Amino acid sequence: MKEIIVNFDEYKEVLGEGDRNVIKIIEIEDNNYVIKSFKIPNLLNQIVYRFFRKSKAERSYAYANELLQLGIETPYPVAYKLCVTSFLFKKSFYVCELVDSDLTFRELTTDFSIPDHEAILRAFTRFTFKLHENGVNFLDHSPGNTLIKRKKDGYAFYLVDLNRMEFGKMDFEDRIKNFAKLTIHKAMIRVMSEEYARCSGQDQDQIFNLMWKYTKEFQHRFYRKIRFKKRIFFWKQKYKNRVSDSPI
Predict the structure, then answer these.
(1) What global pTM score does this model have?
(2) Contact assessment for residue 77 and residue 58, using Cβ atoms and an 8 Å cutoff
(3) Distances in whole angstroms, Cα of residue 35 to Cα of each of 9, 49, 92
């Protein structure tokens, strides 16, 4: 495993690659593992992660073990590795077993022709209720971060991308707010609010109204952030073009 992490850039099978992280599937002795490489943070966070705060990789490993102890599924954690200097934090890696899932929650938001769509959605809501009852506030409870596997007796749900979690008793509003990032579709929110009301014994209309409110608030913040980033990019490009056109 150490040798693979050292030679991480040489492996080609990329599961996901973004601005911050790279995820690859690597086979070791007939077993498949997922290795997530967290990119080097900015200078301030290099100091913070070196001395004051646990890294994303270390938190992912610790939270995965805590979830498993609570009976909540997540790909089995294998290892994490930190790359540091005397004063700065650099790269980090998190390794877990690969789960052969059938779909993620994201597919439920884009393909309403899935035959067991509503059954999965209701089971997912019961799973989320279980998280809340166990004091697990998954702050990145978003469409791509739950793997779904069909089983003979129902469905299994596996949480991934674990580095942002809080543990402790959740009040009613925090529980409902936890659904805000999952979907923009009112019909899905209605089904989830109905199922959560059955689990919790709370009023269904109140749950639906709060879910919809928090969903709209999240969408507003999300798109406002995108517009801001586009403006910054526009002015950067304009400045760059102005400098390149300068005769000096």
Answers:
(1) 0.87
(2) no
(3) 11, 20, 10
Number of CB atoms found within 10 A of residue 125's CB: 22
The dihedral through the CA atoms of 51, 57, 61, 63 has a sign that is positive
Retrieve residue 123's tokens: 């089971």
> Partners of 149 in the beta sheet?
156
Task: Give the tokens for residue 83.
Answer: 């790359």
Query: Can you give the pLDDT at residue 28?
Result: 86
Nearest-angstrom CA–CA distance, 241 and 248: 13
Residue whose C-alpha is closest to residue 11's, from 28, 20, 43, 19: 28
Whether the CB-CB separation of 147 and 101 falls below 8 Å is answered with yes
**Residue 127 CB neighbours (<10 A):** 18
For the chain of 248 residues, list the mean pLDDT of each consecutive stretch of 10: 84 65 88 92 94 95 98 96 94 95 96 96 98 97 96 96 95 96 96 98 96 94 65 57 56
SS3 of residue 51 by DSSP: helix
Question: What phi and psi, each to the nearest 5 degrees, are found at residue 196?
Answer: -65, -35
Dist CA 7 CA 75 (whole Å): 23
Chain-centroid distance, C-alpha 137 = 12
Tokens representing 46 are 């290099």
